[in-house]
Amino acid sequence: LLFPVSNLCGKCRPRDTGLLQPSLNFLYWSLHQTTPYSQQRAVAVLLSNVSLLELLQKVLECTWLRSPPSGPAYLSSEDALLCSGWLLVASLLLYQHRYNTEVHQTLSLDLKEVLNAVIFRNKKPILLLVSIMQFLRAALRQNFSSSLLVIVGQNTAQDATQPQPPSLQDATLHPLATQQVFSLVVSLQNLLVHKDLLLSQAVVACLETLVEYLYVKNQDVALHVASQPWHRFLLFTLLNGGQKSFLQPEVLRLMTLFVRYQSSNIISQKEISQILQEAAEANLAELPEATSCALHLFLCQV
To answer: Per DSSP, what are the bridge partners of residue 152?
Structure first.
């Protein structure tokens, strides 16, 4: 079925949402719900379809070509198609790298536009933001060097009126610019305050991958990002809801991040002791899987 469905997608236009939406979803699940051997074959089939990749290029570009909605953010059919497109491309990036699959057509994206889609949200639906962050994570994990992806139009020039210390030079973070990194971090922090479970999971995962990327490129920038005092305020904001326990997946993962990068101004021995105490008193068998995994990673990091 991959052959006819992928060929059908390649003959469509981005506005053919009624046909493309289920088709892209089928391709996405074909990649994920299969055996590793079949997965490798599926990746090869999709990456050999030039028309499909050209269609995906046009779909992704619609993210910033469309006018933002004037009313409350909701998932329209166009937005749903964008979600499917970003998720599928993120998966193709991941699996192309895993299996070293031959690429017959590259995707060219403006990194500045991708980042601005998250930084300047313009009432984008939560699911669309999550999908774009999934793509951003995949690109960060490969240092923007995938043979499937070409970054174009990156703007690394800094405003001359904003001096910066020598240790924060943009050249070390290429293709990201220092100001883009800080703007993205602030935007991710603001998104966490919404306390939406799906959004929180995506934001924390994106923040983890971003700091890992920065640590490889420039440790000073990574440690600076991980130790921003605003993170501590953010933690207390997350704990100020109906569920005040530290045993929340997004809180545990944030704590793990701060312990990993030794951000003692964000998480102190007191918070670590509180988490250990809560874990000791909890019925571990009744914890949700996401919480159990996050707690395991936290304890290992400690």
So the answer is: 110
Q: Are 180 and 115 in contact (CB under 8 A)?
A: yes
| pTM, entire model | 0.90
**71: three-class secondary structure by DSSP:** coil
Phi, psi angle pair for 82, to nearest 5°: -60, -40
250 touches 285 (CB < 8 A): no
The mean pLDDT value for 145-153 works out to 88
In eight-state DSSP terms, residue 104 is S
pLDDT for res 169: 58
The rounded distance, in Å, linking the Cα atoms of 56 and 53 is 5
The secondary structure of residue 233, as a DSSP letter, is H
Burial group, residue 222, by CB count within 10 angstroms (0-12, 13-18, 19+): buried
Q: Please check whether residue 246 is in contact with residue 278, taking contact to mean a CB–CB distance below 8 angstroms.
A: yes
Q: Chain centroid to CA 25: how far? A: 19
Left (φ > 0), alpha (ψ -120 to 50) or beta: where does 73 sit? beta
* Residue 160, pLDDT above cutoff 90: no
Which whole-number Å values give the CA distances from 39 to 50, 71, 100, 147, in the listed order?
A: 19, 41, 13, 19
